[in-house]
C-alpha cells in the first residue's frame, strides 16, 4: 500500500523528447493529442496524495535559485512587453496556441490596484453574489491570519490574536445583520454555522493563548469554511436568467465540488493524487454545467494529461479526429460560448472578451489569481469554440497579475483547485486521470444531457 507523503517539496527534472515542441507559455488553446510538451517544475506538496516510497528531497528553494530565476525573469519581461506592445514572441506557435494578443491595453497601471488575492477559497467567497458587509467584516481578519503567520516564530501569534479578537468582535456586533441576510430557506443551516463559528473562535483564542502555532492554520481553515457556508446560505436562488440561446444547455445553477484522481507515472515521489475542485456556476453556469455534464458521462475517466509545460496543465482532447465532445444526440461537437462575469455586472458577458467590449478596466469575478485556476481552452480565433478541453494555470500571479495579464477576460474561468493544487506542477504528459467524480452540488445541474438515452 502506498504511503501518504507529507507536505514536503521534492525535486524533479524536466524532460524533453524529440517529439516535444516548445510552445508559447502565454495562451492555452485546444491542443492535438499528437503534440507533447515538457514537464512542469516541482512545487510544494500537500497531503492526500500517495507515494510509492519515502525518498529524500532536494529543497526547492535551492532549485529555484539555480534553474528557474532566468526562466521567471524572461517570462516576466515577456509578459510586461506583451501588455504594452501585444503578443510577445516566445517561440514556435503551433496548433496548441490560442489567439494572439490584441493591441496594448490603455492605462494598464490602473488595472493593478494592489496585491492580488491568491487563495482559491477567498476568491470563491468574494465571488458569491451577496452584499452583506457584516459577514465580510468577520471574514477579512480571519483571512489576514495568513499574513500574520509570515512573522517568524511564536511572535506571529500576537498578530493572530488581534485578528481573532477583531473577527470575534465583528461577529458579536454584526450577528443580527448576518442572520437577517440569510435566505429564508437556509436560515437554520446558516444559524448552525454561525454557532459553530462562534464556538470555534473561542477555541481559536485558547490555541493562541497556549502558543500552539502549528494549530493555527488548520483552525483558520475550519473557521473560514464556516464563514463560506454562511455566505452561501445568503444566496437565495439563482440570481439571473441565462440568455435564451443557452438556456437549454446543461447549466450549473450554483456550485459543485468534484474530485479528480490522477495516476502519476514514472515519478518515484508520487503514485496518485486527488485534486478537489470547486466549480462556480453562479459566475459561469454554462461553462461549469458543461463540465459537470461531461463528468457525469465519465468523459474524462481514463484520459491522459495532454499538456504540461510549466505554464498550464491541459486535458480534454478525446481519441480520434474530434477535438471536443461529440454529442450522441446530434453527432456533432458540442461547443459552449465564452462566458465572462465582471465585477459590478448582474450576469456574465457571452461570446466576447472584455477587450472586445472595450471594458479594459473591468475586473473579472473569477480571476486567474490562484495556482490551479481552472478554465476552458478554445480555438485561436473563435471565442465560442470551447467544448471539452480544460486547463489549470500554474504560473504565480506575480507574473500574471490580476486583470493586467493576457488571460483575465479572455478565457472562461469556472473553478479553482482547492486541495492539493501544488501537485498540479508535478503532472506530466501521459499521466492518467483515473476518475472525476461530483461529490457535492450535482442537484444544482439543470438540463443534464447525460440522462438522455443515446
Automatic annotation (TrEMBL):
One of its GO terms (molecular function) is peptidyl-prolyl cis-trans isomerase activity. GO terms for biological process: photosystem II stabilization. It holds the Pfam family Pro_isomerase. The keyword Ribosomal protein does not apply. Its EC number is 5.2.1.8. PROSITE patterns: CSA_PPIASE_2. Residues 277-454 form the PPIase cyclophilin-type domain. Keywords: Isomerase, Rotamase, Thylakoid. This is peptidylprolyl isomerase. It comes from Erythranthe guttata.
